[in-house]
Amino acid sequence: MTLLAMLLVLSVVAHAQSRVITGQVKDEKGNTIPYASIGIKNTVTGTISSGVSADANGNFKIDVGSSKLIVVSSTGFKEKDIAVPTSGSTITIQLGTTSQVIEEVVVTALGIRKNRNQLGYAAQQISGDDLSQSRGSNFASGLSGKISGVEIRQGNGMGASTNVVIRGNKSLLGNNQALFVIDGVPVDNANTTNAASATGRVNDVNARPVGGYDYGNAAADINPDDIESVTVLKGAAASALYGSRAANGVVMITSKKGKKGLGITANSGVTFGSIDKTTFPKYQTGYGAGYSQLGYSKSIDGSPNVGFWWKDAFGTGSKSSVVPTTEDASYGLPFDPNIMVYQWNAFDPTSPYYKQARPWIAGANNPFAFYETGVSTNNNIILTGGDDKAGFKLGYTRSEEKGVLPNSKLLKNNINFGANYQVTEKLTAAASVNLTKIEGKGRYGSGYNKANVNQSFRQWYEMNVDMLELKDAYNRTKQNTTWNWADPTNNGVLKPIYFDNPYFTRNQNFETDNRFRYLTNASLNYKATDWLNIMGRVSLDSYDEEHEERIAVGSVGIPAYTQYNHTYRELNYDLLATFDKNLNDKFNLKALLGINMRRTINNSTFATTNGGLVVPGFYALSNSVNPLNVLPTDEVAEKIAVDGYFAGITLGYKGFLTLDATGRVDRASTLPVNNNTYFYPSVSGSFLFSKFLVNTPWVSLGKLRLNYAEVGNNAPWGSLSDVYFKPAAFGSATLFSIPDTKNNPTLKPEQTKSKEIGLEMSFFRNRLGFDVTYYDTKSIDQILPVAVSTATGYNSKYVNAGTIRNRGLEVSVTGSPIRTNDFSWNININWTRNRNKVLSLFEQSTNLQINQLPLQGGVSINATLGEAYGSIQGKTWTNVQGQPWKPGEQKLIGANGYYVITGTTNNVIGNINPDWTGGIYNTFKYKDFSLGFLVDVRQGGNLFSLDLYYGMDTGLYPETAGLNDKGNPSRNTIANGGGLIVPGYTADGKLNTTRVENISSGYYGYERNPASTYVYDASYIKLRELNLTYSLSKNLVRKINPIKGIDVSLLARNLWIIHKNLPYSDPEENITSGNIQGYQSGAYPTTRTLGFNIKLNF
Amino acid sequence: MKKYIIIVSLFSVAACTKDISRFNEQTKSPGIVPASTLFSNAVKGVTDGLTSTNVGINVFRLVVQHWATTTYQDEPNYDFSTRNIPQGWWARMYRDVLVDLKEAKRIIAADITLTDATKKNQTAIADIMQVYVYSILLNTFGNIPYTEALDFNILNPKYDDAKTVSDDLFTRINADIAALSITGVGFDAKSDLVYGSLSDVARINAWIKFGNALKMRMGMVIADVDAAKAKTAVEEADKNTFISASDNALFKYLAITPGTNPIWVDLIQSNRQDFVAAATLINKLNSLGDPRLSLFFKPNDVGAYVGGISGTNNTFSGFAKVSDNVTVTNYPALLLDYVETEFYRAEAIERGFAVTGTAEGHYNNAIRASIVYWGGTLLQSDTYLAKPEVAYTTAAGSYKQKIGTQKWIAFNNRGYEAWLEYRRLDFPALVVPATAKSGFPNRFTYPANEQTLNKVNYTDAAAKVGGDKVETKLFWDKN
Q: Which of A52, A97, A38, A7 is nearest to A700 (CA)?
């Protein structure tokens, strides 16, 4: 905001000075070159301010002000600096053609820059500006839709983790997330959310009493404003040099570097978030608390409404109707303002409604009212500078996010410093340090967990409750004054039964966390000769984090305090020699030889109080009711060492044929000593065939790529030899148990093999281009704890087994349909289709369950033989022959008028994989305005909604209280014209005509419908990003020394879900990142953000 | 040239690092533990399973209609697949109990610090617990993996015929009883979670009685299909097993978490209100004027003993609930007790087995012991036994009905045992809820994951037991 004020002051003092030059751009033969770019170049710093485009006839007009130099460029021609004539205003500029059509340089593995034309594999690059312009706090989510072959799934929670999978899931049970690398240094992207909350469930026995927060993944520590560019290496051939971890593809980040002269860029922005109503439940408003209109009291006892309790509520000796507060459902009596009843707050002595019977009506404010407006601010300044010998950058970013839930906040502070110095002509030293501190408070609870308010809002709730009355009650008492009393009339003891007041949950049972991270490296580069370069580097990725979780005294759950401390260190030592030599005028040889030593330490401890808290509100382990030392230990101390030796060779012939080969040997500490070394090669070739298309000038570029690669991988830490598991002690008896997973000392390395073919072409001087890639990868001999019959005494055993194949097509299209002086339109389309198939599993098993803990709803996510990875299994309908139902068949209705459901839970009822994903990014520029928007599409794939599985049963949604075929309210009794007929057929093949009641829970939801009912199509079309930027007129800005440019932007994210098939929720929402996708429970609504940003260049 | 030498040596220095396998050492978990810690864990594992009221673990109180549920009606309606209950029960027994006992036996055998007598004793006690657990599996599922079970090299264990397994368990229990000797000691007092309060010698004798009580139960289970074997087993056991309640195999839960009784965890600590007394039991206790009514349960909010209907919604406040005696943190659990051995003796006499005493005498002993165990008085039991509908001579029906009805009452809070005896004796009549998903469950279906992980053997076993359905009767369930 201070920047905004400064801007206003400066613009007032601005005044204009201008000098207009007109001209024409021609080639060597004197033909005009259309649409060349003309920019103004700073003679001191060499920086180019964006200028104008020539028209179709090569004519341009530019206001050069007081500048001395302009620069003219056009694709296919050599860039040329032209001094501004001291007098006159018309010039003609001639450009020479370049030997190659385009000379785009791509950053490839190990940070080696290669000419795009020589690449034999797919590598897509995106500029940092394209990622950061929407000002999202996690840059990974900014990749969505902008790169083909990459599937991004992001949760809607504040700071939620982002799932980044490149070219499909390759590992059955292992990590499928892409590797992140900054300036050649791998960055840990662990998601330290605990396993129980990853499945959305906390176990009942021996489980952590607290849990269920998505702590995000560590790549969120990367500062989006420090990113110069991102290259995504999709296939194994591109990434083989990074070793084992790169089998899932690499997201390679190049950070900003110091430049000659002084440059300052500052951003200041604010965004406001509010939830998208289409991703939140609509509620029925006709019926209130209860699972049934019958049965909470008896008319013979004098109860006027058997759907209410009939109780002596206040010990006065006379009975009255009381809302059944224990019933977390809305299948009770129809609302009727003439009925007077005691609600939950009639029992709260501080309530204005204390001891007051009130009309039986729907709550004035439903849970939508619980959500607030989120506010995020982001301020960033980056300073770059340097001279002939040295360069540096220094950046600082502070972003603060206040979420859409009460009492939520995420603060990130980030400092980047990098410097390089040329010690001698041959020796360069460089170092950088990146410090990030993230502090979270009140992250959103996730999954089926009391910490997640949506568990109640979407599944278990009473429509007679007014959300703002709950807010008032909490603010009045700061106690857990809930709508869900165990029994308020019972001896005056007020305690909750299943659900806390959501305001109490957010304000008392909140978590706090912090992570302090250093990413640092130091390197020496020695240019031995003009063809030999040697680089040595030491880098450290290090973080310490702490999670603290609380359950306050008075909550439904057992009061508790838990503390998780995690330390991660990864040291990489690199030594790399590179050769680059023209052997003769036809052959060029590039080669590299390198060593990488990786040492990882991963330590954590988890501790929790035992049996409750002694002093309310005091959160320390010492405040435990019972001793801590009997609880299960949860200490982790993992060390991993991997030594890699690698070599690569690139042979170029006449600039149009390139052959590239690499090989790497890894030795890993996690494999058996006698089998811990493994080699893997890659070979790729490219053919620039446009070189021979001289007679088709409309083809600007044509290149064919072909490659084959293997990547080996090692075992998870500690999977070789057996140890004992230590459960909680029983008094003085120490207990030990055989662990659930049997280790295996005979594991061998696993392998991914991939083939890829690609075609890149561009036309009409690059006004149109495409890149098509087909790939086929197979991951074989996977190391995984394969599920075994528990009659073995184990859940699983580590083996080498299983093959997954991923085949897919990636298409990127770029185009500039319109390009004139004032107006341009650029379009970038990415489309990905991945086909995944599980080809083999262990021995005779035909299925591997991916979720290790059971999922609510009796469903599971699986790798099923012959199916795509991620099949959703559960109960389904039966057909009239009594077999599991298949699409197109008739569904069988039993004698009771309801579906006959399979007894088996292993029916495939969906699959999480989309048919295809895509994105269309459009940029329009008109004079100083630019408008960019991204439409992000996912077609197909399924998800299971536990929210609707339960929430339909409890009668929260409008569908459960509609009209029946007779036009009467279905919740009337059948005798009164209500009731419903389950659509289906009886065993004799006739249409079902049995009418069943809908006056109690059961017609909808889980009780009488199989899980397959609540499997939905997860397709969506989203207007993901929208940016409107106004670059303040150059004429204006130039006068405001020292400012060189001011951009004012209007930014929006998740503005509009154009299409989806999942009701009341966002199909993209997940519980957390990882392999268990396609499952929603307590889903968060989408947050629409809208904001402003000001960018100043000095 | 010098600089190239430097470069080459740099690379070779980096290439020579030490053995890196030490990085893989698991320093936070032990590789060697005492056998007794595994034994204790196994005993606690099976006891927790039998004691729990969690609908994801133990549903037998609901099946035998001792308890009913307030809101969630899946399990009272015999829907055991939504929460994968058979899978959990099976995994608990094999993965959490049997394999630990097997490992304990392995460690004992290899322990050079133990005398032969002590080795034999500890092995026998661990094996008795294995027999105890296998018989639970046998009586829950029918054919089960046995000869190929608990072997990590056989990942698809075959299912053995239930009767054959049962015969082998008799061989084992006989050998175990014979092996126990007071010349050695058993597990130490701290680790023996059943008889740890006894002296070394008394502990061995207690395990001999325990083994015989188990043998008696196993014998009675097969009485309808192999009367001869049953007769031998029960007659042998009769002389060597429990003679009073002081012999009871009690698992003494602790007063503080996490060693508390799971009932307290599920009913009190959780704050939930899921269970009420079932009308089936409450009505029977009311009609008999049973002194245990107020010991089993506490009345509803208006002081009345009203039971909830199994399979339908029941408002918590309107019905009787589990009594406060049962919901204390350290309420003990029973693995085997004198009440059941007395009922077995009564039945054995009716079956013509050579057991001392009369059926009526043992029947009376069992009921008296039950009432006293629950906190009633001998006077109350005498009054009760004098009632014509209770007195053995005048109570209605066959011995199966008399014993079955009283056993079903005495086994309140021991859902699994009540279910076992109900299937054996078929009394009292339980009403299948109108909304039930199946007929009365005579067994559990096999775990869902066996269908995929051990498909060939599963399919074979399903056919051999007569169809993998809950209604299928087990081999000993002939009537």
A: A97
Pick the last residue of a domain from B327, B362, B377: B327
Specify the DSSP element, H or E, that contains B408.
helix B399-410
Q: Torsions phi, psi of A946, nearest 5?
A: -70, -25
* CA B67 – CA B75 distance, rounded (Å): 11
DSSP notation for A497-541: SS---HHHHHHHS--EEEEEEEEEEEEEEEEEETTEEEEEEEEEE
Question: Would you tell me which residues 372-431 of chain B have a C-beta closer than 8 angstroms to some C-beta of chain A?
Answer: none
Domain check: are B237 and B373 in the same one? yes
For Cα atoms A66, A70, A75, give the angle at the middle one, nearest 5 degrees: 155
Nearest to B272 among A205, A497, A723 (CB): A497
What's the burial of A1037, exposed, middle or buried (CB within 10 Å: 0-12/13-18/19+)?
buried
Q: Do both B387 and B276 map to the same domain?
A: no
On whether residue B63 sits in a domain, the answer given is yes
Among A608, A620, A604, CA closest to A544:
A604
What confidence tens digit (pLDDT) does each residue in B13-54 have?
555 556 788 899 999 999 999 999 999 999 999 999 999 999
Contact assessment for residue B78 and residue B445, using Cβ atoms and an 8 Å cutoff: no
Q: Is B13 on the interface with A (CB under 8 A)?
A: no
- Per 3-state DSSP, chain A is made up of helix, strand and coil in percentages (nearest 5) of 10, 45, 40
Q: Report the interhelical angle of B399-410 vs B279-288 (nearest 10°).
A: 110
Q: What is the CATH number of the domain that holds B401?
A: 1.25.40.390
Amino acid at B276: V
Quick one: B369 and B387 in the same domain? yes
Task: Please check whether residues B438 and B339 belong to one and the same domain.
Answer: yes
pLDDT number for residue A90? 80
Contact A1021, A994 (CB under 8 A): no
Number of domains chain B is built from:
2
Is A845's Cβ below 8 Å from some Cβ in B? yes
Res A47 pLDDT > 70: no
CB contacts under 8 A, B 146-205 vs A, are 149-152, 154-157, 190-191, 193
Asked whether residue A272 carries a pLDDT value surpassing 80, the answer given is: yes
Instruction: Tell me: do B372 and B399 sit in the same domain.
Output: yes
Residue B24 lies in a domain: no
pLDDT at B11: 54
| Distance of alpha carbon A812 from alpha carbon A831, whole angstroms | 6
Asked if residue B370 and residue B297 are part of one domain, the reply reads no
Report the C-alpha gap between B449 and A918 in whole angstroms: 37
Is residue B41 within 8 angstroms of chain A, CB to CB?
Answer: yes
Q: Residue B15: inside a domain, yes or no?
A: no
- Do A476 and A350 meet the contact criterion of CB atoms below 8 Å apart? yes
Residue A641 and residue B103: Cβ atoms within 8 Å? no
Domain containing residue B164: 35-67+78-252+332-465
Count Cβ atoms below 10 Å from residue A491 Cβ, excluding itself.
Answer: 7
Query: Judged by CB atoms within 8 Å, which residues 884-913 of A form the interface with B?
Result: 896, 903-906
In this prediction, residue A178 carries a pLDDT of 86
For residues B156 and B305, membership in a common domain is answered with no
d(CA A852, CA A795): 9
Residue B18, domain member (yes or no): no
Q: What is the pTM of this model?
A: 0.86
Question: How far apart, in whole angstroms, are the C-alpha atoms of residue B156 and residue B160?
Answer: 13
In this structure, the dihedral spanned by the alpha carbons of residues B465, B468, B474 and B475, taken in order and rounded to 10 degrees, is 0
A730 touches chain B (CB under 8 A): yes
In this model, does residue A209 exceed pLDDT 70?
A: no
**B96 lies in the same domain as B149:** yes
First to last CA, chain A: 17
Tell me which residue in B90, B96, B254 faces A731 most closely, judged by beta carbons. Answer: B254
Domain stops at, among B279, B301, B327: B327
